[in-house]
Each structure stands twice: as structure tokens, then as C-alpha cells.
UniProtKB/TrEMBL annotation:
It catalyses: [protein]-peptidylproline (omega=180) = [protein]-peptidylproline (omega=0). Transmembrane segments: none annotated. PROSITE patterns: CSA_PPIASE_1, CSA_PPIASE_2. The keyword Methyltransferase does not apply. It is an enzyme of class 5 (isomerase). Belongs to the cyclophilin-type PPIase family. Residues 13-156 form the PPIase cyclophilin-type domain. InterPro entries: Cyclophilin-like_dom_sf, Cyclophilin-type_PPIase_CS, Cyclophilin-type_PPIase_dom, Cyclophilin_A-like. PPIases accelerate the folding of proteins. It catalyzes the cis-trans isomerization of proline imidic peptide bonds in oligopeptides. GO terms for molecular function: peptidyl-prolyl cis-trans isomerase activity. This is Peptidyl-prolyl cis-trans isomerase. SUPFAM superfamilies: Cyclophilin-like. Its EC number is 5.2.1.8.
Length: 170
């Protein structure tokens, strides 16, 4: 699959994240699909814990909301929470992934096998923006660079169901 990069434009600057579609295709397809549907635009980082992580993707801004569907975890043994800048799904237990995600400030190895890693920041400049985010800061937009067609094709059965649910909420 081609290289995919997410650009999260915030009120503090841009966070560039390389996505891992070869290792977590459904998780990446979910994120890409939500980004392409402008789901994240205008949402706040509702949970920020210093020296741990920033969390966003809740349409209610409280950590209780999501897209209206849940999907199973995807774990790859090579993807770990072993450094700052790891992009991972926030969840409330196994199989409860939706739209919420977090980006780490530090290594968080206790999250391995509990939260699906599906990307990592590009460089230190991106980590500086991550570290500057405070609770209530806004994701102005999330855009995808690269061609996501192959990962979206792999996840088509899920995407059809997810988009039907998202369309019914309009």
C-alpha cells in the first residue's frame, strides 16, 4: 500500500502523522474515512494529561461520544507504545474503538495490547505541537496525504456499514 500521512491542523499548529495501513488496515481505514467525511473538523482535544497523552475525536467533547459504531482492536507485534508521538485508538475495553484517538507524550508500554497503534508522528516538530496542546484546543481539520484507495478497499465491508450509520445521523 502507498504511504499515508494524516495532517491534523490544530489551533497550535500542524501535527503530521505517518499511518500504518499495512499493519492495522481497518483502524487506518476508519480514521481516513472519518477524516474524509470531515468528522474531526472543529472537535476539541477533550482530555489532556501532562507527560502522558492528548486525546480527541469525541463529537460531544466529553469522552463519551463516538461515530455510532464500534469495531474490534487490531494489534501488530511490531507496533508498540515505545516512544513519544504514537497515534493509538482510545477505547473503553476490547472491541470498543470508534472515533476517539490519542497521541502520546512519552513511552506508554502498559498500553500495548490494549490500544491499537495505527500511526506515529513524523518528527520532533510534530511532537512539539503535540506537547503544546491543552484541554479544549481544537482540531481545525484532519486531511490525508497519499492514496488511501487500497486500504479503503480492504475495509469496504466495514466502511459500508459504518457510512450507513454515519449517514443516518445527519
Amino acid at each position: 500500500m502507498s504511504i499515508l500521512r494524516a495532517i491534523i491542523k490544530t489551533n497550535k499548529g500542524e501535527i503530521r502523522i505517518d499511518l500504518f495501513p499495512d499493519k492495522t488496515p481497518n483502524t487506518v481505514a476508519n480514521f481516513v474515512n472519518l477524516a474524509q467525511r470531515n468528522f474531526y473538523n472543529g472537535l476539541k482535544f477533550h482530555r489532556v494529561i501532562e507527560d502522558f497523552m492528548i486525546q480527541g475525536g469525541c463529537p460531544q467533547g466529553t469522552g463519551t461520544g463516538g461515530p455510532g459504531y464500534k469495531f474490534r482492536d487490531e494489534f501488530d507485534s511490531s507496533l508498540k507504545h515505545n516512544k513519544p508521538g504514537i497515534l493509538s485508538m482510545a477505547n473503553a475495553g476490547p472491541g470498543t474503538n470508534g472515533s476517539q484517538f490519542f497521541i502520546t507524550h512519552v513511552p506508554t508500554p502498559w498500553l500495548d495490547g490494549k490500544h491499537s497503534v495505527f500511526g506515529a508522528i513524523v518528527d520532533e516538530k510534530d511532537q512539539e505541537v503535540v506537547n503544546s496542546i491543552r484541554q479544549g484546543d481544537v482540531m481545525e481539520s484532519v486531511t490525508i496525504e497519499g492514496d488511501p484507495s487500497s486500504v479503503l478497499a480492504v475495509a469496504k465491508p466495514f466502511l459500508d456499514e459504518w457510512n450507513q450509520i454515519l449517514d443516518s445521523k445527519k
